[in-house]
Amino acid sequence: MADPNANRLWIQEALNLELAARDARPLSQRLYDALRSGIQQGRMSAGQALPSSRQLATELGIGRNTVLSAVDRLLAEGFLVSRQGAGVFVAEWQWAPRPSCNAAPDTELSLSRRGQRLLDFAGRTDERPAAFAPGVPALDQFPRERWQRLLRRHQQGAPLEWFDYQSAGGVRALRDALCDYLQLSRSVQCRPEQILITQGAQQGFELIARLLADEGDRVWMEEPGYGGAQACFASAGLQLEPVAVDDAGMDVASLPDATPSPRLIYLTPSHQYPLGSTLSLARRTALLGLAQAHDAWIIEDDYDSEFRYSSAPIASLQGLMDNAPVIYVGTFSKVLYPGLRLGYLVLPPSLVEPFQRLNARLHREGQYVAQAALADFISEGHFARHVARMRQCYRHRQALLRNALAPAVQQGLRLSSGHAGMHLVAFLESHALERKLVERARQADLLLSPLSAYYQQGSGRPGLVLGYAGASDADIERGGRWLCENWMALAPDVTPQRPR
Fold first, then answer.
1. Do the beta carbons of residue 421 and residue 276 sit within 8 Å?
2. What's the sign of the alpha-carbon dihedral 228, 306, 301, 176?
3. How far apart are CA 330 and CA 202, in angstroms?
4. Cα-based distances in Å from 172 to 123, 169, 194, 371, 481
5. Strand ordering across the sheet containing 423-427
6. Residue 1: other Cβ atoms inside 10 A
7. What span, in angstroms and rounded, lies between the C-alpha atoms of 475 and 57?
8. Cα(93)–Cα(80) distance, integer angstroms
9. Is the Cβ–Cβ distance between 173 and 159 less than 8 Å?
């Protein structure tokens, strides 16, 4: 049997170590941590008696209530047991051996096959260099003070029912404001009742996949395309069918005749992500007819339609025909800020009720204060003014990037048109050059997103997706000069010599 005196000495030593940590934990928490650690590590074996609370308090020089607080927690959690008339003892239990803290977890064994596949779509999230992260808006330009005033207004006057579970599809004022805005700026055909407020576009994709498709159904997707949508549909067990994209957008005619019919068709018709093309009118009408013929739903992702620099925003695909088989998806992550976590779906009338029910069941509606503030932000004109300012800001930042890359362009580097959006694509001649530039940029604290990573099949087209919207002027100029110099230094080594 273990020596009780040795046990008391060990407890005293352990507590002294805890006291030496100099953190903000209460003394009872430190004693609890020391005792629990001793039990878990086997320093205090099962059935071993614990010194009485009075003895521990005296020997450790602390109050008895402090000891009782720690012991009571361990009794409640099952680490200790109390025997009437005998005292407190370490409980009979078994602890699975812990792996070494230095051993790397075997993710192939601990993750599901579906999880492994989803990680292929997921980029790194532990870094956010100043340039050139795609899809990041100019957070420094957001009118935070005005936004905070609107939030305070609705926090102070929030009705009691906003604190309860909700299932109405969102704050009515926001759906009214959105309906007016979408009809005017995007020619969307809808009523406020058809709008469902979500916690971002990703939640909208998930609802669509769960309600409108079964596992194994086909979803046609742009190739290259948006990894977030790819991951969402893959996680739902859908089969992704890549469809080539050219200067006129998704080219359904490029698919082999034997291609299985789709249940869903996902695309970004106004400004294709990431190549930047616009779906032609002929292809829009053909796609609507194809969806009707195959009883399929078109998912129109309109992620940054507000930012066009040479013309007015393109009218939505959804508004081209009455009762179009289209679900229109929008988000405020790009036009305002990602942390807002608000997006929306414009649903055909027949889908409104089931989508509202499932959204309320799976995700629980919320952020009604933020929704009400956003409704005022739109209806009072702040939204339109902010979009206009951002359009001017992004046009300026794109010009800075083009100017920094001008020497390389003169030597043969080709850039996308940049007529809209928040990024440019630099097309490269080889994957070797793409890999070298990405690796060098990482060492220089720049984020170069390889274009080939946006493809589902094969090695994809080599290039770089250069986000400029969220970077400062200085970061754009510095990063642009770095890229220009490194492209000019590396290109001759990894690509055929260009004719002069």
1. yes
2. positive
3. 10
4. 36, 8, 11, 9, 49
5. 414-415, 423-427, 463-467, 449-450
6. 7
7. 60
8. 10
9. no
- CA torsion, ordered 449, 455, 459, 465, to nearest 10 deg: -20
Q: Is residue 17 helix, strand or coil?
A: helix
**Lowest mean pLDDT across 93-102, 119-128, 176-185, 336-345:** 93-102
- pTM score, whole prediction: 0.82
Which segment of 114-123, 344-353, 389-398, 436-445 scores lowest on mean pLDDT? 114-123
- Answer yes or no: are the C-beta atoms of 202 and 118 closer than 8 Å: no
Sheet order of strands, 49-50 included: 49-50, 87-90, 80-83
How far is Cα 487 from Cα 405, in angstroms, rounded to an integer? 10
Q: Under the phi-then-psi rule, with left for phi > 0, alpha for psi from -120 to 50, and beta for the rest, what region is 311?
A: beta
pLDDT at 500: 36
| Residues 292, 330 contacting (CB under 8 angstroms) | no
Q: Name which residue leads in pLDDT, 32 or 344.
A: 344
Residue 499 has pLDDT above 50, yes or no: no
- Give the list of residues 6+ apart from residue 317 with CB closer than 8 angstroms, or none: 269, 279, 284, 287, 288, 298, 300, 324, 326
pLDDT band, very low/low/confident/very high, at 334 (cuts 50, 70, 90): very high
Q: Which residue has the tokens 């926090």?
A: 155
Give the 3-state secondary structure of residue 115.
Answer: helix
Output the six-digit token pair for 39: 């039990």
Summarize pLDDT for 253-273 with one digit per residue, the tens. 999 999 999 999 999 999 999
Q: Tell me, what DSSP letter sits at residue 310?
A: S
**Six token digits for residue 212:** 């409108």
pLDDT digit string (tens) for 378-411?
A: 999 999 999 999 999 999 999 999 999 999 999 9
**CA–CA separation, 222 and 455 (whole Å):** 9
State pLDDT tens for residues 211-250: 999 999 999 999 999 999 999 999 999 999 999 999 999 9
